Structure formats: C-alpha cells, structure tokens
Amino acid sequence: MKRVVLILLSLIFVLMLGTSVLTVGATDIYPDLLETSFEDGGAFNFATGSDIEPEKDINTVWDETAQAYFLRASKDDPENFLVSTEATNALARMILVQKQSEPDLDLSFAWEFMVRLPEMPESMTYGSGYFASGGFTFCADANYGYFLVQSATSDADAQNLYLQFPMEANKWYHCMLVYDDFEQQFYAYVNGARIKAKDSTNDYVSVNPFRLSYLWHHGLQIGGSNIEYKRVDLSQDIAICNIYSQIVPEEDYLEIYETAAMQWGLIPKEQATNPPQTQEPSTEVPVTEAPSAEAPSTQAPETEIPADETDTDLLPTATSGVQGNDGGVNVILIIAIIAAVLVIGGGAAAAWIVIKKK
User: Fold this and answer.
1) How does pLDDT run across 98-126, given as a tens digit for each residue?
2) How many CA atoms lie within 13 A of 313 on its CB side?
C-alpha cells in the first residue's frame, strides 16, 4: 500500500510541474481594457463581458468580406455612435490617482482602431476617440488622417500634437496608436507602417506630460466627435476599436495588422503567414454621403476628480503581457514538453528506487 501511495504522489507532483511550465508559454498580448465586438444593433466588450453604452439600437452593417459587423456612424444620424467608459475610467484612475503614489508605475497603453471614410471632410474634423482639453483622438481633413494628443499641465500651456498619414475615401485603415509612458512619447502604425509627425520628420511626438483629463465624466467615443458634444461630426465606418494596457511592440502589431488585413480584404490572403478562415474579398464598398464640418474648439475648463473615483479599492493594476509570436510559443511548448517528459521519467525512476529500498 505504501508503495502505491508513493508512486501516485510522485506522478502527481511531476504532472503539476509539467503543467505549470506549459501554461506560462501560452500567454500573449491581448486588448485587456476594451475589445469591441460589433453585433446586430449593438456592440459588446469582450474584455469585461458587458455591453457598450448607450443602450439603444445602433446601425451596424454586415460585411460579406470579413463575415463580421462594423459600425456605420453618419452625420445624417448624429446619435449613431457608441461610448465606452470602462477603458477610459481605468486609464484615468491609473494616471490621475495611482501614478501619484507609484511614480514608477508603467502607464503605457495602445489604441487599435480600424476606420473607413465614405467621403473626406473639407477641413479637420473630429472622429472617434477621447478628446476634450486633453486626451487622444482620430481626426481627418481633405487629404490626411490624424492622431491628435495633447501635452500640457493646464489650458494655459496646452499644445496639440499630431501624427498624420495620407488618407483616401472608401479605403480601410488599420491603426495602432501607442503611448510609451517611460519615454513620454506617442507613435502610431497605419496599415503595417509607422507614420510621421505632422510638420516633422520624427516618427513620434513627445508629451511632457501627457494630458489626460475628464475621463471620469466621459468615455471613449466610438464614432462620436469631441466628447463634450456627444454627436457624430465625421461620417465613418468602424470595424475595430480595442485598448491595451501596455505597449504593443512592432512585431506584435504586424501580426495583429496581418490578421485584420486578411479578414477585411486589405491584402490578399496568399500574402499572409496564417490566413484567417474567411470568404474571398468583395470588390464592392458601401458608401454613404457625409457633409464636412469645421473642427470644434478643444478647450474646456479644468475639473477636479470626484472623491468617489479615488477609492483605491477600485484602482486597476497595470498589466504587461508576454511578448511573442506563434513560432516562439511553439518552441517554448516543445521545450516544455521535453522537460516535462524528463522530469516525469526522473520522478518515476526515483519512485522505483524508493520502492526497491523498501
């Protein structure tokens, strides 16, 4: 009886060791603050398992190429946009509260966004994002798309900074806006390439500090304009809107981009390393008319954070995913399996020696 118990205990211990080795290698980067899934008449946040506000019927359109829904925001329907407060509230609490007590806390984040404009506006107009006297947002004018961020400590020294890329109507653009907290820089990728700053040869803009305000009052607008106006000012189709609580390295961005590009027909499937299982791309592109609009003012009065938002029990912890790709994970799994086999063999041998001595 003692021999059987010893053998069982040895095998259980070894299997537990092998399991712990295998699970570590399977970790990967994912949008842990906001992962939007557009549905028929609404949207869902996979990161938190809840619907995205407002709770009303939203105009979503089925795309035959991607076999998925996208949001169609139009000036003709100014209330057809979504608001997510979960991701922006988390960023606000970390940046405005937790950072004060933990100066070394890494508050880097990334915003993944995929957009198509049916018509380019005549002048710079606000699109999706979070911006009102600070924040980050997507804008467009007649020839370019922009990512706008603000560097400031108050309205008096506010400086708007732009990253820009050439943009045309009726084309999908997959974007990743990244904030590097340690370097205090923003940079962005669009359709697989890093873009430049406006009126500069730099591929980043420096923010000292990055100004993030009003996030405890307003959320990220998906298809909406300046957060204070709560309306659609730029007609746009939106297929993806995700937020990561960390930097997304370039190699990981390229994998994310390739997956989206294959699904939505930006690049041919034969160019993909791991083509997704979707239908062949369609050549038809739905178009809606959208009148242009003047860019609204970005200035807003200063606001104090309410006391109930400073509850440290509600403060999220900044996360840092394990960087990697499919090849790296496969190698780790193979090594882990070999190690597990060796450990199991050693455990069995040890158990046998114990039995022989008994």
Assistant:
1) 888 888 899 999 999 999 999 999 999 99
2) 1
CA torsion angle 143 125 89 180 (round to 10): 30
Contact at 8 Å (CB) between 39 and 60?
A: yes
What's the confidence (pLDDT) of residue 156? 87
The reply to whether omega before 78 is within 30° of 0 (cis) is: no
Token pair belonging to 309: 């938002």
| Separation between Cα atoms, residue 340 and residue 335, nearest integer Å | 8
With a CB cutoff of 8 Å and minimum separation 6, the contacts of 213 are 132, 133, 134, 135, 300, 302, 303
User: Can you tell me the distance from the alpha carbon of 16 to that of 315, in angstroms, rounded to the nearest whole number?
Assistant: 33
Residue-wise pLDDT tens digits, 185-240 = 999 999 999 999 998 999 999 999 998 876 556 889 999 998 888 899 999 999 99
Polymer length in residues for the chain: 358
Answer left, alpha or beta for residue 214, where phi above 0 means left and psi between -120 and 50 means alpha. Answer: left
Return the number of other C-beta atoms located less than 10 Å from residue 263's C-beta. 24
187-220 per-residue burial string, b: 16 or more CB within 10 A, e: under 16:
bbbbbeebbbbbeeeeebbebeebbbbbbbbbbb
Running DSSP on this structure, what letter comes out for residue 98?
I
Query: What is the maximum alpha-carbon separation in the chain?
Result: 88
